[in-house]
């Protein structure tokens, strides 16, 4: 593969200057068009050490408007990154719509390094590659443009770049001039890179291999590749905007749903509740500190009907956990900044480090519930979200996170009673809105959406817990006991 790139491509200064003049104007033009069309762009710059990656990134920032470009140099990992799921470091750096994110050090770095150091078996390598392809696929489906550049230099050129013989401006200052060590691993690096490139060279995010021995040719070639990618992306037909959808077609014939299996009559006597609550909270408190000592994080997702008691249940959980050990993330309609990213971005960035808990009051399941029912997401968007959510949760679990997901179910009659009680209680009136009443008219639509959600995302490792919520006392104890059992099973 790489031998075909060693053909001696070069550009003299006069040719470089002439092509640069045209290229620079066109890059700026298309950069501004991407801004107008709110297209987020990712540029992955990869290659062997000494290939001129830093020089190329500097040139791209010179040619285009740097105010719309953010360079992410992720070749060194902080403890903040290491104490979270691997892809957290990349999700938090994703560019907003209309901006460009350059990645020096990317999601390919770990795989190539592990492969080079022989620290991965075939199964793990296949899993890593699948995660990469899934990650890029979900971004492209959301409108991202991904341009992946691999800069190749010959062994001789790399040796020259990493020794004192190279011109000072072409040396890589972060690498000591121990060219002999790099020469030894050069063939293995190319072999590992070839395997990774072949497995991740997809139609939606193809690799571009560039001969990089000559700086002038390298930078013009990469600039023209980027320009063509921008032009091609803008010429693609745009997906239609989401429009309000009619009521979901009820194809069940009135048959029961998964929610009908929840025992709506389940209850707990007040005296039993007063006895069990402090016991469960003390148990959860001990487990939270044990998880902290063992550097295990846990994530709890709270979903359910309006007025189902999510807030009061969460307060019983937070009342048991030391405030230093958890973060509560509460979500409503997305902000402008959140809309400028993939919908999972606002949830990824809230994931806490090892030893801490993240509690989600509403979550990523809004994509397949309210956004589906209300027409804020297209059919394609919410249908592919099941797979995207399962991938997200699989990465949390792979990192060692303990994950619990709760749907608090109440009957329609119980919801109506709670709505009226809120209207009649001055300090609770703020909790009831016109949207709450309007959503009641779509009860069956939401019921069918929950049925699909549970069917598609209740996996063996991340099952849903359907909570009987008509009696709040019963619901709170069920949630606390479920959290305790999950932590006890996971901790040493």
N-to-C series of helices and strands? HEHEHHEHHEHHEHHEHEHHEHHEHHHEH
Given as residue ranges, the uncertain stretches (5+ residues, pLDDT < 50) are 173-178
Helix content: 40-55%
CATH architecture of the largest domain: 3-Layer(aba) Sandwich
Strand pairing plus helix content: what structural class? Answer: alpha/beta
Structural features, described:
InterPro entries: P-loop_NTPase, PolyP_AMP_Tfrase, PPK2-related. It comes from Parahaliea aestuarii. Residues 11-233, 268-489 form the Polyphosphate kinase-2-related domain. Keywords: Transferase. With 492 residues, the protein is α/β, with parallel strands linked by helices. The protein folds into two domains: 2-235, P-loop containing nucleotide triphosphate hydrolases (Rossmann fold, 3-Layer(aba) Sandwich), CATH 3.40.50; 258-490, Rossmann fold (3-Layer(aba) Sandwich), CATH 3.40.50.300. It has helices spanning 13-36, 53-63, 79-82, 88-91, 109-116, 122-141, 155-161, 179-200, 215-235, 270-293, 310-318, 336-339, 345-348, 370-373, 379-399, 412-423, 434-440, 443-457, 472-490; strands spanning 41-47, 69-73, 100-104, 145-152, 207-211, 298-304, 326-330, 357-361, 402-409, 464-468. The strands form two sheets. Strands 2-3-1-4-5 form a five-stranded parallel beta sheet, sandwiched between helices. The chain has a five-stranded parallel beta sheet with strand order 7-8-6-9-10, with helices on both faces. The longest helix is centred in the first third of the chain and has 24 residues, at 13-36. It starts with 12 loop residues before the first helix and ends with a helix.
């Amino acid at each position: 593969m790489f031998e075909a790139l060693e053909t001696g491509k070069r550009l003299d200064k006069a040719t470089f200057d002439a092509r640069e003049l045209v290229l620079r104007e066109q890059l700026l033009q298309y950069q501004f068009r991407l801004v107008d069309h709110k297209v987020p762009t990712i540029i992955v710059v990869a290659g062997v050490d000494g290939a001129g990656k830093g020089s190329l990134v500097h040139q791209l920032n010179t040619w285009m408007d740097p105010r719309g470009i953010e360079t992410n140099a992720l070749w060194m990992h902080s403890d903040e990154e290491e104490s979270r799921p691997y892809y957290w470091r990349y999700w938090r750096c994703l560019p907003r719509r209309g901006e460009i994110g350059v990645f020096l050090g990317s999601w390919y770095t770990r795989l190539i390094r592990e492969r080079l150091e022989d620290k991965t078996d075939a199964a793990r390598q296949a899993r890593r590659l699948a995660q990469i392809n899934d990650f890029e696929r979900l971004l492209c489906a959301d409108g991202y443009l991904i341009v992946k550049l691999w800069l190749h230099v010959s062994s001789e050129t790399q040796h020259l770049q990493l020794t004192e013989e190279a011109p000072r401006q072409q040396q890589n200052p972060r690498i000591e001039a121990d060219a002999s060590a790099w020469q030894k691993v050069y063939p293995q690096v190319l072999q590992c890179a070839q395997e990774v490139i072949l497995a991740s060279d997809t139609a939606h995010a193809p690799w571009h291999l560039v001969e990089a021995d000559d700086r002038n040719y390298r930078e013009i070639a990469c600039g023209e590749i980027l320009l063509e990618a921008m032009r091609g992306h803008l010429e693609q037909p745009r997906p239609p905007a989401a429009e309000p959808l009619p009521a979901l077609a009820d194809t069940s014939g009135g048959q029961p749903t998964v929610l009908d299996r929840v025992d709506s009559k389940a209850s707990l006597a007040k005296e039993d509740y007063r006895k069990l609550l402090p016991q469960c909270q003390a148990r959860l408190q001990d487990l939270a500190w044990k998880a902290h000592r063992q550097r295990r994080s846990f994530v709890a997702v709270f979903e359910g009907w309006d007025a189902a008691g999510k807030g009061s249940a969460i307060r019983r959980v937070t009342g048991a956990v030391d405030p230093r050990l958890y973060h509560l993330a509460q979500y409503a309609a997305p902000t402008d900044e959140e809309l400028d990213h993939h919908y999972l971005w606002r949830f990824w960035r809230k994931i806490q480090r090892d030893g801490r808990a993240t509690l989600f009051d509403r979550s990523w399941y809004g994509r397949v519930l309210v956004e589906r029912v209300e027409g804020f997401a297209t059919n394609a968007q919410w249908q592919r979200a099941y797979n995207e959510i399962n991938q997200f949760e699989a990465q949390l679990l792979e990192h060692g996170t303990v994950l619990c997901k709760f749907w608090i179910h109440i009957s329609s009659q119980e919801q109506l009673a709670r709505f009226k009680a809120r209207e009649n209680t001055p300090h609770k009136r703020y909790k009831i809105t016109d949207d709450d009443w309007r959503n009641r008219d779509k009860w069956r639509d939401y019921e069918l959406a929950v049925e699909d959600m549970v069917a598609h995302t209740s996996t063996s490792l991340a099952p849903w817990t359907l909570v009987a919520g008509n009696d709040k006392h019963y619901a709170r104890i069920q949630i606390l006991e479920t959290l305790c059992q999950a932590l006890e099973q996971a901790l040493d």
